[in-house]
C-alpha cells in the first residue's frame, strides 16, 4: 500500500498557534495540505490576518478562533466552533520559574490549567468528531521536561509529565481505531520569545552571541543547536501521515540529545 503524505481534506486545530512552535506547526500542516484553525486568547486584527496569510500562502482554508486555554469550557468550545477536527495539536503553554516553597499558587494553577488540563478538554471534545470521520490524530506538544526535570520548574515539569502520561492513556483507549495519540517533546527551540532573550543573556554573562547560546542557553542540549519551529512542524506532519499509522502512545524527542544523557 502506498504511503500517503498529503493531509488534503483534513482539518487541524492547533492551540496556542499565533506565534512560535504552534505557528510553525500550523504552517507545516498547511504546507502538507491541511486546513488549519489557529488559536490563542487574544482577538486582534493581526491574529485573523495571520490565518488569511496562511490560507494565501498554502492554498488551504485557515481560520483564527479565540479561546482561553485556562478555561475548560472555552477549550471545548474551540473544538465545537472548529466544526471539524481530524488533527488536534495541543500546544498552548506558559512557564514560571521559582522554588517550590515560593511558587505562587495562582501561577501553579494557571500552568497546570493551560499546559495540561486544556489537552484533556480539547481531546474529550475532539475524539467524537474523529470517530465520526473514521480517522484522527492527537498530538500533544510536551517537552524534554515531560521526560526529565529541572529545578525551579515544578508546575511546568508536573504538567508536561502529565501530558506524556495522558497521551499514553488516549493511545490505549483508541488503539483499535484509526486514531493515534503521541507526545512530541522539544528541547530548546529557537522561537521569537527565545530569540528576544539572547541579548539580555549576553549582557548578563558578558559573552558573545554564539558563546552564550552554546555555553549557557544550550548547556543541557548536547547538539548545542536549537531545534527549529520548522523541524517541530515537520515532526508533527510526519505523525499525521500514513507512515506513522502504527506509532501511538509514544514520545518523540526533538531535543538535540538532551534526554539521552
UniProtKB/TrEMBL annotation:
Q: Which InterPro entries match?
A: 3-OHbutyrate_DH, NAD(P)-bd_dom_sf, Sc_DH/Rdtase_CS, SDR, SDR_fam
Family statement: Belongs to the short-chain dehydrogenases/reductases (SDR) family.
MF term (GO), any: 3-hydroxybutyrate dehydrogenase activity
Q: What is this protein called?
A: D-beta-hydroxybutyrate dehydrogenase
The superkingdom listed in its UniProt entry is Bacteria
Name the Pfam families on file.
Answer: adh_short
What is the primary gene name for this protein?
bdhA_4
Q: Which UniProt keywords apply?
A: Oxidoreductase
The UniProt transmembrane annotation reads: none
What's the EC number here?
1.1.1.30
GO biological process: one example: monocarboxylic acid metabolic process
Which Gene3D superfamilies does the entry link to? NAD(P)-binding Rossmann-like Domain
Amino acid at each position: 500500500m502506498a504511503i500517503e503524505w498529503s493531509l488534503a481534506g483534513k482539518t487541524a486545530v492547533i492551540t496556542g498557534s499565533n506565534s512560535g512552535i504552534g505557528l510553525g506547526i500550523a504552517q507545516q500542516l498547511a504546507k502538507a495540505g491541511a486546513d488549519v484553525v489557529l488559536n490563542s486568547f487574544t482577538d486582534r486584527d493581526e491574529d485573523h490576518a495571520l490565518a488569511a496569510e496562511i490560507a494565501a500562502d498554502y492554498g488551504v482554508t485557515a481560520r483564527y478562533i479565540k479561546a482561553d486555554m485556562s478555561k475548560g469550557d472555552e477549550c471545548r468550545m474551540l473544538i465545537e466552533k472548529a466544526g471539524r477536527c481530524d488533527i488536534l495539536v495541543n500546544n498552548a503553554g506558559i512557564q514560571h520559574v521559582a522554588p517550590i516553597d515560593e511558587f505562587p499558587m495562582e501561577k501553579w494553577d494557571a500552568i497546570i490549567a493551560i499546559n495540561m488540563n486544556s489537552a484533556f478538554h480539547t481531546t474529550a471534545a475532539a475524539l467524537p468528531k474523529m470517530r465520526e470521520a473514521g480517522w484522527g490524530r492527537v498530538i500533544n506538544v510536551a517537552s524534554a521536561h515531560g521526560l526529565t526535570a529541572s529545578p525551579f520548574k515544578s508546575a511546568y515539569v508536573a504538567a508536561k509529565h502529565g501530558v506524556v502520561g495522558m497521551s499514553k492513556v488516549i493511545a490505549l483507549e483508541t488503539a483499535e481505531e484509526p486514531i493515534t495519540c503521541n507526545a512530541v517533546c522539544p528541547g530548546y527551540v529557537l522561537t521569537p520569545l527565545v530569540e528576544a532573550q539572547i541579548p539580555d543573556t549576553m549582557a548578563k554573562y558578558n559573552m558573545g552571541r554564539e558563546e552564550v547560546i552554546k555555553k549557557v542557553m544550550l548547556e543541557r542540549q548536547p547538539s548545542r543547536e536549537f531545534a527549529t519551529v520548522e523541524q517541530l512542524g515537520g515532526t508533527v506532519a510526519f505523525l499525521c501521515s500514513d507512515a506513522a499509522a502504527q506509532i501511538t502512545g509514544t514520545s518523540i524527542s526533538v531535543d538535540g540529545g538532551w534526554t539521552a544523557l
